[in-house]
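User: Can you help me understand a structure? I only have the sequence.
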Amino acid sequence: MFFAAIVTVYIVLGVLYESYIHPITILSTLPSAGVGAILALLLTGNDLGVVGLIGIILLIGIVKKNAIMMIDFALEAERVEHKPPEEAIFQACLLRFRPIMMTTMAALLGGLPLALGRGTGSELRHPLGITIVGGLLLSQLLTLYTTPVVYLWFDRLAHRFERFQIGNPIEELATGD
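Assistant: Let's start by predicting it. Here is the structure, written out as tokens:
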């Protein structure tokens, strides 16, 4: 089920950005959220059950949105303002830091009562809060550093493959090349 969800997200992002590479850049942020959620569950001695899986699915949406905000801003700076990729992603990191932190902190602080709550039925909600808090903490720490690196790495890889790109034969015949 997770694989089908990731493939669907990849296809939607690929259509949105008209690219094979940028959806991978965005999806590269997801493993840190899953690792953070599982580590938090292990550290607290909880099992990964259905409620924990729901928390990981929630994390996928939040972490993916943070990466989309950063990558979308960088692509727009490259296309509209004709900035080089290094400057575009740097500007995106600076200008999108506050909105990313605001949404992450809102979700993290919303998960704290679930993770720390005591009372009737709290044992059911406890893994949900732990996965949210642990996944957001680790993914936010890593994503702010890894997303620009992955973005620049894939950009360089795309430029390297442009040399091998085969042109459109119909356009070449029309221009006389």
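Now, to help you interpret it: The domain at 26-157 is CATH 1.20.1640.10 (Multidrug efflux transporter AcrB transmembrane fold). The first helix runs from residue 2 to 17. Let me know which part you'd like to focus on.
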